[in-house]
Amino acid sequence: MLNTVAFPGLFDRVLILNRVAFTLFGNDIMWYGVIIGTGFLLAGLYGAARAEEFRLDADFILDLLIFCLPAAIVGARLYYVAFRWDYYAGNWSEILNIRGGGLAFYGGFLGAILMGALVCFIKKRPFLAALDIACICFPMAQAIGRWGNFVNCEAFGGETSLPWGMSINGGAPVHPTFLYESLWNIIGFALLHFYSKKRKFDGEMAFGYLAWYGFGRMIIEGLRTDSLYIGSTNLRASQVLALVFFLIGGVMLLYMHTTKKYRTCPIFKAIGTTAEVVIPDLDEVLSFDAASADIEQTTPEIKEETNMKELTLFMLPRCPHCKLAFKFQEELMAEHPEYQNIKITMIDEAKEAALAEQYDYYYVPSYFVGKEKLFEGHAEKADVEAVFKKVLEM
Predict the structure, then answer these.
(1) Mean per-residue pLDDT, 128-148
(2) How far, in Å, CA of 198 to CA of 70, rounded?
(3) Residue 21 in this model has a pLDDT that exceeds 80
(4) Which DSSP string do the residues of 69-91 spell out, in sequence order?
């Protein structure tokens, strides 16, 4: 299982590559599997490290890996077999022989996504948020995994006279398309990683990945010599799907950003990402006696509730995230029994039209003690808790 690889336009050295990494209990363990597994492992560790930013947790990321990895392998194999059915129809025993090669990325991608959706549904987790973090992990895993193609001396392109042309077993130099895709994915991962810290809505990273990967794969696939074709046509299956990915991702990003349909949810901000907000000195802004007097003057019928500390959220009735506000409240109640006298109420858009126009959001949080507004704006959950703690001490 040895192959020789050279890059005659760059240097004279010939590399000898053994597809077998090591032997375990009499079975050869291939470098391809080791490299693919390493890519999945590193991507999983990255996802676990950033899970909280996407309203998830490390344990859930582990659950996704456990269920989605085998689903991805099955999907990748089924996709490959489907497009090579002319061969496998007469060789049924070879369908399960994945050690002989034959895994296609698109099938693995679809298999993992379907299983991930099922896991999110069962565990009641936000699917689009999980898809976002997965689509940052995918290019990392792909960038590493493509080097398995290098060791196997596969997934290369047609002949080329470019300096980095790769000669396999003494043949004419060819395009190292595995390298092209690896580099494209490294760049894509870096872009998604840094942009994700400012993402505006669930699904944005997924659409970004589809657009980026689809565009690159569409071009790179045209250089390869081992493409799977659709039936008896000259259409490369992966190239067509890459175009579909690019169009879906690009059109959705353009639509969401031009229409601003995403209109960032402040509760999403509070739980998921960091935002700047200046929390005032409550001692200077408000005294507890002032809050009591204000309530007594304006609404004497609720005088007995002067100790109620209200977190008031401005929300439009059409907002798709309203229930997150109540989930946020429930979390606070569960974590901090001392917050039992804090409640969340809704303010109708019709009554706060000026505020809606000012912020151009579906809703924006406002923090009150009694009738006195403390501040408005996005805040981290920890900052909100700090305000509550301070208020309760007054």
Answers:
(1) 95
(2) 32
(3) yes
(4) HHHHHHHHHHHHHHHTHHHHTT-
Q: Residue 21: which H helix or E strand, with range? A: strand 20-24
Output the CA–CA distances (angstroms, integers) from residue 152 to 89, 155, 165, 232, 265, in the order listed: 26, 9, 17, 28, 47
Fold designation for 268-393? Glutaredoxin (3.40.30)
- Which one has a higher pLDDT value, 160 or 359? 160
Best-predicted range by mean pLDDT among 18-22, 312-316, 326-330?
A: 18-22
Strand partners, 73: none
**Contact in structure between 139 and 186 (CB atoms under 8 Å):** yes
Domain regions of the chain by residue span = 2-262, 268-393
- DSSP H or E segment with residue 133: helix 127-152
DSSP characters over 262-293: S---HHHHHHHS--------HHHH--HHHHHH
Question: Token pair of 276, please?
Answer: 């700047």
Note the residue count of the chain.
394
pLDDT at 187: 98
Spatial contact of 103 and 73, defined as CB atoms under 8 Å apart: yes
Burial (CB count within 10 angstroms: exposed 0-12, middle 13-18, buried 19+), residue 65: buried
Sheet containing 309-315, strands listed edge to edge, beginning at the edge strand earlier in sequence: 342-347, 309-315, 363-369, 372-376
